[in-house]
Amino acid sequence: MTGEVVLFALVIALSPFTLIPALFMQFTPRAHATGGAFLAGWVAGVAVPVSVCVALTPLVQRLEGGHSWTAWVRIGLGALLVLLGIRQWLVRHGKAAPGWMRLLADATPPRAFRLGLLLSLLNPKIFLLSAAAGIAVATEDPTPAGAVIAVALFTACAAATVLLPVLLRLVFGERVVGPLARARSLLERNAAAVMAVVIAAIGLLLLAEGLAEV
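The structure corresponding to this sequence follows.
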């Protein structure tokens, strides 16, 4: 797994779109069950786009007879991420809490699984980063086993911060609720601006790589 793929996984793992709902799960009536169900849904939502891109990239390469198309895909993904970063920066102040946060407050395990799946699979930033990781893995021409391992490692890294609150609650019980609440509050206040800059920076990196390959 290349450094580029690790970077994409870390951006997803440290994103407020990952951390905030994962922390919310620890304040539901059945924290252990809902946290585990949300984790399962999140893993599935991250694994789908990266796996699809890993599977399809070699087929497209054979049809196109080369790697030049991946450069244009990187340029397109980079441009979209830059635009998303700029948009998030512009609306970072005074933005109302999204509707899905209300659904998290009393989530049951089945609802938590669905929310984990939808919040990862349908979030454009996470989807684009996962797709970019899949293309990066496939362009290294791995063996089938190597591709599976790379996808598994990427997904595990991207979901590590969803797993962490679950483990902390299991190990420390109610003692960790206070620190988790403070971490959630801090993220809600400051994460939008930081994430806007990070997303835009990743977009610029993809743009630069794509332009260098054209």
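The mean pLDDT is 83.
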